[in-house]
C-alpha cells in the first residue's frame, strides 16, 4: 500500500505541473482514489485503536497478575503497534495531501475552493 500511495501522489504532482490536462476528468479520477485511500485510512485507524486497547488491557492485566506470559503478549503488542502507527501516519498525511491536490485541480479548472 505504501508503494502504491506514494506512486499515486507522485503521479498527481507530475500532472499538476502540466497544463495540457483534462482537469475535470482527472479530478473525478482523483476523488475515486481519495475515497479508496480514505477508506483504507479508516480501516487502519480502527485496527490501530483496537491494538492500542488490547495493549492497555494487557498492561493492566499484567499489573494485577504479574504473569510472565502476559508480559510477552504486552511486548509483542507494543512491537506491532509501531508499524501500525507508522502506516496510519502515512495514510493520514497522504490523504490530507490528496485533498490539497484536489483543491489545486479545482483552481486549474477555474473552480477555486472558498471557505
The major sheet is characterized as:
none
Number of domain modules: 1
* Class computed from helices, strands and strand pairing: mainly alpha
Low-confidence stretches: none
Order of helices and strands: HHH
CA-based shape = rod-shaped
Determine the N-to-C terminus distance.
32 Å
Q: Which range best describes the helical content: under 10%, 10-25%, 25-40%, 40-55%, 55-70% or over 70%?
A: over 70%
Measured on Cα atoms, how large is the radius of gyration? 20 Å
Number of discrete helical segments:
3
Strand content: under 5%
Give the number of DSSP strands.
0
What is the chains' assembly state? single chain
Average pLDDT value?
91
Textual characterization of the structure:
By secondary structure, the protein is mostly helical. The protein has one domain. It is built from three helices and no strands. Helix 1 runs parallel beside helix 3. The longest helix is centred in the middle third of the chain and has 43 residues, at 23-65.
Quick structural summary:
By secondary structure, the protein is an all-alpha fold.
SSE layout and pairing:
Layout: H1 2-16, H2 23-65, H3 68-109
Key features of this structure:
115 residues; 3 helices; mainly alpha
Amino acid at each position: 500500500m505504501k508503494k502504491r500511495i506514494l506512486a499515486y501522489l507522485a503521479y498527481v504532482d507530475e500532472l499538476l505541473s502540466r497544463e495540457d490536462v483534462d482537469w475535470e476528468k482527472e479530478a473525478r479520477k482523483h476523488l475515486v482514489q481519495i475515497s479508496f485511500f480514505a477508506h483504507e485510512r479508516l480501516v487502519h485507524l480502527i485496527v490501530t485503536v483496537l491494538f492500542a486497547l488490547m495493549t492497555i488491557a494487557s498492561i493492566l492485566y499484567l499489573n494485577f497478575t504479574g504473569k510472565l506470559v502476559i508480559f510477552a503478549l504486552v511486548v509483542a503488542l507494543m512491537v506491532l503497534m509501531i508499524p501500525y502507527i507508522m502506516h496510519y501516519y502515512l495514510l493520514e498525511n497522504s490523504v490530507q495531501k490528496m485533498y490539497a491536490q484536489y483543491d489545486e485541480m479545482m483552481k486549474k479548472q477555474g473552480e477555486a475552493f472558498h471557505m
